[in-house]
Design a protein that fits this description.
The chain is an all-alpha fold and 397 residues long. It has 18 helices and no strands. The chain has a single domain, classed as Growth Hormone, Chain: A (Up-down Bundle). One of its GO terms (molecular function) is transmembrane transporter activity.
Amino acid sequence: MKGAWSVLGVTLAIQAMVAMALLTLPAMAPAVAQAVGISAVYIGIYVAVVYSGAIVASLAAGPAVARFGAIRVSQAGLLLCAAGLVLSMAGTPAAIATGAFLIGVGYGPVTPASSHLLALSTPPERMSLVFSIKQTGVPLGGALAGAIVPGLQHLVGWQGALVAVAAACLACAAVAQPLRAALDADRDPARPMVLGHLGRPISLALSHPGLRLLAGCSFVFSIAQLSLTTYLVTYLTDTLSYGLVAAGLALSVSQFGGIGGRVFWGWVSDRGLGARRTLALLAALMVVLSAATALLEPGMPDLLVLAILLLFGASAIGWNGVYLAEVARQAPPGQAGLATGGTLSITFLGVVLGPPLFGALSGLFGSYRAGFAALALPTALCLAALLRTRRDVQAGA
């Protein structure tokens, strides 16, 4: 288990940095939108472009990891995220969109790469916990973005904030270099990168009933997660009259809820509740808390608002580790990276479609409340599917 914890530390740091890169611009969306001269509602399009790149990269991740090694692929991801942030400094919609796509291409292969490393080094009975701890890197990166980026924007401007996060990504890639030889020892430099094989991960995910259910639920859960992280700052500033720094801190609170949630739900799943029942419980919480977020009003006590957002983060951001560990468990032997890439491409499709739909619905009704309220319906359908599957398994036992 000692080796697993070492791998965990490396993958956690890399995951946090690419997540921070992804959420850097959303964390200061009102200021960037004003500088560029567009509506902040278009931040959903930005996130969709990011995850369009992530879909492509996640499908290529399995062959890339096999050929170049998981650490080298992760380092390349960090470099691409840094390049995307720097390109976005140009301040034109075209440059920001291109930068977003590069960030997505950098973000996409990191999770399959880390799943490859952790699946090899983690005992099966600890998988949910270890994968959940590693996946705390995503909300940790979001918390860092929410806590640091708005303040940086006030100090050095939004372009200076982009440069600072890009530099942090480069530093993380450099720190990982001494570990590359040992952790990438299983790479096969002769492994071909064949474009025709990019459909194999999706085929694997859709042909396996358990993986198909997990991928479908992750599609919906990712809509809830990214709608929360993408629009929370704008919702709080526009609807609840929060200042940008206060709204950024509230985003950090939701992300810290996700950090604690990922570890807690992984522990709960490993301790006997099981992955599917844990995911069903999380779906139920998302239904309640998305509705509660839609009902927030100006003048509500800050502690009450933060408590709701903390719990919303714990559920809407806390599901990933349990999900990824279950994908690794159900994947055919030696194909955890391939299965993760296939299911993640469907997860990322939810992110591509979800935030723009959230923004369009909010624009149609003239309030971000409509978007948060609408999240309850698809998560309720996931809850029903998970409960029905659980009953089918028990009936066939």
